[in-house]
Automatic annotation (TrEMBL):
Keywords: Membrane, Transmembrane, Transmembrane helix. InterPro entries: EXS_C. This is Exs-domain-containing protein. It is a multi-pass membrane protein. Residues 190-414 form the EXS domain.
């Protein structure tokens, strides 16, 4: 880059303050803080998250609790991030040329982020770190552990990756621009860096992982039924896993059609721009609606979408369920409303005065943060549901609503 303002791409005001590499780092660190808060609050209400995900137990009661270790890691990563940002602002003063020229600072922090995760730290359990890396390695190819080996932890982490899909795409863009002689990673983001294929592909990878996990679960159920010669009433024939796989597969048309709409000449694909938009809109509605239904009915086991008799049962508040660890019913209703709203943030594009919202860097960043917020809320209720399944019901291998009778779904066994 020659630094000539006449040939440099225009850098929007938001990117001058918070360039793409810093945004990626900020959302990653935010996710670590959020996970610590998940662990902390769930511990306060007597839900043992480590036991659910088969995480190594503390060797001594004098060792810090898991959420405190998470806070320490988040603090360790937050301090250099804050210092790096302050130094970046002091050196650039919002000048587009200086912003583009000082790309080394945020990328050095990304290196610190990687080192902090891989290199053993004195305040991080070695066993816990090894377990986390092993889990990442396993799920990176769509693998999933058996229930007794931490399957639930694999599912939580893989689902979290789907919420970070766009962030992973931005990370690729940032690194691509950093290693490109024609761009600066702190300049105007070029989401076509590396070609039109790679960014959509990277965004799709987390959904491919979950899709493969669901298919693996389906075949496990099939093999178990073949061994016994009958369908297990607890796990059924595996149809729920296929339905879950179908949910993740609905993300692919959205990703592909979004990529096609970014093409300079969509008509070369044999469809008009208007038709392409309508196809994209249908895919988005299907994905958002299906995902919202699954969150409420399957992941949280709420009866909102059940039949009237079950939904209106006098044993529990309307649309909820019998056993709940969050005592205020308003928590559940609020979670449903927020999940619906954040699942449908795509609707901002339908507003005429916000038709370019997703084309603004601040808008993209806001969408990514909101998705991390939605996932943070989702984890509270998903973990609470799993705890109820294991301690208030028959608790076989990850029972899912719809595979057993709803009437005795949470009946006490004693």
């Amino acid at each position: 880059m020659d630094g000539d303002p006449a040939v440099e791409p225009v850098i929007d005001g938001f990117s001058q303050v918070l360039p793409l590499p810093y945004r990626v780092a900020l959302i990653i660190v935010l996710g670590i803080w959020a996970w610590g808060l998940n662990l902390h609050y769930l511990t306060l209400i007597k839900i043992d998250v480590p036991s659910l995900i088969r995480y190594p137990a503390r060797a001594s009661p004098h060792h810090p609790p898991h959420h405190l270790s998470c806070y320490r890691i988040a603090t360790f990563l937050s301090i250099p991030l804050a210092l790096s940002l302050l130094l970046f602002w002091a050196l650039t003063h919002g000048s587009p040329t200086d912003v583009a020229g000082w790309e080394i600072l945020p990328n050095l922090y990304l290196l610190v982020l990687v080192i902090g995760f891989i290199v053993p730290l004195p305040f991080v359990s070695r066993a816990g770190r090894s377990r986390t890396l092993a889990t990442l390695k396993r799920i990176s190819i769509g693998g999933i552990a058996e229930a007794q080996d931490g399957k639930f932890g694999d599912i939580l982490l893989a689902d979290a990756l789907t919420s970070y899909a766009k962030v992973l795409g931005d990370l690729f863009v940032s690194l691509c621009m950093f290693f490109s002689s024609a761009h600066s990673s702190t300049g105007a983001p070029n989401r076509n860096c590396g070609g039109a294929f790679w960014v959509p592909f990277i965004i799709a990878v987390p959904y491919m992982i979950r899709l493969r996990q669901c298919i693996t679960e389906y075949y496990r159920v099939q093999r178990a039924n073949q061994r016994t010669g009958q369908i297990n009433p607890a796990t059924g024939w595996g149809g729920t896993h296929l339905a879950n796989a179908a949910k993740y597969s609905t993300a692919f048309p959205v990703i592909v059609l979004s990529a096609l709409q970014r093409s300079p000449d969509p008509s070369r694909f044999g469809v008009s721009e208007a038709t392409l938009y309508r196809m994209w809109l249908f895919a988005v509605v299907l994905n958002s609606g299906y995902s919202f239904y699954w969150d409420v009915a399957k992941d949280w086991d709420l009866t909102l979408f059940s039949g009237a008799r079950v939904r209106n049962s006098p044993e529990y508040p309307w649309g909820l369920r019998r056993h709940r660890y969050f005592h205020a019913k308003e928590f559940y209703y609020a979670a449903v409303v927020v999940d619906a709203m954040l699942r449908c943030t795509w609707s901002l594009k339908l507003s005429v005065h916000l038709d370019h919202f997703n084309d603004l860097e601040g808008g993209i960043f806001t969408m990514e943060v909101l998705e991390v917020l939605r996932r943070w809320i989702w984890i509270f209720f998903r973990v609470e549901t799993e705890w109820v399944r294991n301690h208030r019901g028959p608790a076989p291998d990850d029972i899912l609503l719809g595979e057993v009778g709803v009437g005795n779904r949470y009946d006490d066994s004693d």
